[in-house]
Specification:
Helices cover 31% and strands 18% of the residues. By secondary structure, it is an alpha/beta fold. The chain has a six-stranded mixed β-sheet with strand order 6-5-4-7-8-9. The chain is globular and about 45 Å long. Residues 1-11 and 14-26 have low confidence and may be disordered. One 2-acetamido-2-deoxy-beta-D-glucopyranose (NAG) binds next to loops.
């Protein structure tokens, strides 16, 4: 009797997940066309930028991105991604959101208080490896200091670049590069004080309504994503255009929001498919390969 009543909700949940079209894998991970929290993408597209004309300004290239790119550890509250950096890049992601913590000259990767078992050198090495293998590509990186001691990371960033990459890997200008100029390079969007290292993050047209207190606020979050994406074709083409589809809150996990927002994003883009229009950079939690490919196909 007890067992019977306890089992019923479990069955219902499984039924709901199957109805939702999810492929439920052994460990409870989900791989759908819009949302993927398994350990690797369904398919990859490592050199899609090869097809972008050299003369096109990078601000006119539509790109998929990840929010809190390195947030792979720390449980549901801290995790935003399930693919390692190398897999994200090979799947087609070209915008990275990197948050570093400065401790006595070291730049470690954290999401909030959760240490992500990596430092900025690992990120640079991953980008160097990828660009060596696929020189037609470029990587755009927002770099921000978070939960830190100093709020003065310029010198440490320069040291890491010399140590784990090389100076010429970077685009050292505030000017927007063309696709041709950007190939093989890391485009840092500097989200910290100090001398110029590259372009400034604050020069972008950004929608980052990240706060989604409860699942009842998902509709509101989607509305802000929708409005910004609708404005993309009319936006200033000389300026990069960035929309965060990700969100989190005290009573919601990034994965719970991504499961809902990514689906709406997928349907929205699907309805526009075939139109070669500007949608800019769309930054997501747990994107799936078909959703990345959909964004790529707007070019
Ligand atoms: C900084 O990084 C070096 C090399 O990885 C390590 O040996 C050292 O302990 C780190 N220092 C701090 C304060 O984390
Ligand atoms: C999104 O954020 C902007 C400013 O950051 C704010 O003006 C706007 O009202 C927000 N939109 C929603 C739907 O919360
Ligand atoms: C990668 O994306 C490009 C551009 O949309 C497309 O033409 C190509 O077929 C894709 N390649 C793979 C391997 O999916």
């Amino acid at each position: 009797m007890m067992n019977g009543t306890q089992q019923a909700p479990v069955k219902t949940l499984l039924e709901l997940m199957l109805l939702a079209g999810a492929i439920v894998l052994g460990d409870g991970a989900i791989q759908r066309p819009d949302y993927d929290d398994t350990s690797s993408p369904e398919f990859i597209n490592s050199s899609w930028m090869a097809g972008i004309p050299d003369s096109l300004p990078l601000s006119e290239v539509n790109m998929p991105g990840t929010h809190n790119t390195m947030a792979l550890h720390g449980g549901h509250i801290a995790e935003c991604q399930s693919w390692a950096l190398a897999s994200q890049l090979r799947a087609g992601v070209r915008f990275l959101d990197i948050r570093v913590r400065h401790v006595k000259g070291n730049l470690t990767i954290h999401h909030g208080v959760s240490y992500q078992r990596a430092h900025f050198g690992h990120v640079l090495e991953g980008v160097v490896d990828f660009l060596n293998e696929y020189p037609t590509e470029t990587v755009v990186m927002r770099l921000r200091e978070e939960f830190s001691e100093t709020y003065d990371i310029y010198g440490a960033v320069v040291n890491y670049i010399h140590r784990y990459a090389h100076w010429d890997l970077l685009w050292h200008s505030r000017q927007m590069p063309t696709m041709g100029q950007a190939r093989g390079r890391l485009i840092v969007l500097q989200d910290f004080a100090g001398p110029d290292l590259g372009m400034r993050y604050r020069s972008l047209d950004i929608a980052d309504n990240w706060s989604v207190p409860t699942l009842l606020h998902v509709a509101e979050k989607w509305q802000s994503v929708y409005e910004h994406l609708e404005a993309a074709p009319k936006g200033n083409k000389a300026q990069m255009f960035l929309t965060y589809a990700s969100g989190a809150g005290v009573f919601t996990y990034p994965s719970a929001i991504a499961q809902r927002i990514n689906r709406r994003l997928f349907d929205y883009l699907d309805a526009k498919m075939g139109q070669k229009q500007r949608i800019g950079i769309i930054t997501m939690d747990y994107p799936a390969a078909p959703l990345l490919q959909m964004i790529i196909d707007f070019n």
